[in-house]
Amino acid sequence: xxxxxxxxxxxxxxxxxxxxxxxxxxxxxxxxxxxxxxxxxxxxxxxxxxxxxxxxxxxxxxxxxxxxxxxxxxxxxxxxxxxxxxxxxxxxxxxxxxxxxxxxxxxxxxxxxxxxxxxxxxxxxxxxxxxxxxxxxxxxxxxxxxxxxxxxxxxxxxxxxxxxxxxxxxxxxxxxxxxxxxxxxxxxxxxxxxxxxxxxxxxxxxxxxxxxxxxxxxxxxxxxxxxxxxxxxxxxxxxxxxxxxxxxxxxxxxxxxxxxxxxxxx
Length: 266
Hints:
alpha+beta, globular, 2 domains, 5-stranded antiparallel beta sheet, C8orf32 fold, 13 strands, Immunoglobulin-like
């Protein structure tokens, strides 16, 4: 399937910003199941300072604000050819060793509520089947609901709130999978939805390393492994390492407004 993606992010401020720096992870990866055919990034109100590949093999772009900017617009668009691999990405690659994905982070630190999710999951079951059961348990414990959490909400905190979004589902699933002894990581990317083209946020899911398959994706929010409708962009131990945009700014501005416009279509 050939997917066309348009992603525009606009930051606006009530007074000029004296200095700002954004770290972008917005370039999809050409790996098993997807091939990036075209991709371009345009910056209005700032400029690209440098590009590099981080330890997760994410393409990272550093963008500075033009002095005195009151708005910066980041537009990414391109075409990606995808195939259905039933979520299987394959063997581990990259600069980070596999064992590092067994580490907990502040966003994925498990507590009593997450530990309860793995009770009764028999080690005699096939790993993939056990993880699909875990995925279903996470969604049952935390129904999808927008507005109750944000990017700083930790997995155990989200469990206590009783609802969350794809980011929370991924963090909780990752924390539980690591408790079961699996390396696990966070994935940010895009999903072509069946009922709409326009979206106001990118998507997130998890990947777990399962022998002998290698990395396998699990989209808890939709109860499936990613298929040809998904485009992987960045991976990391949690959201903080795979966030599409993260940055700092200095100045007298006290108000920041954010507008995100995403279109994903065949």
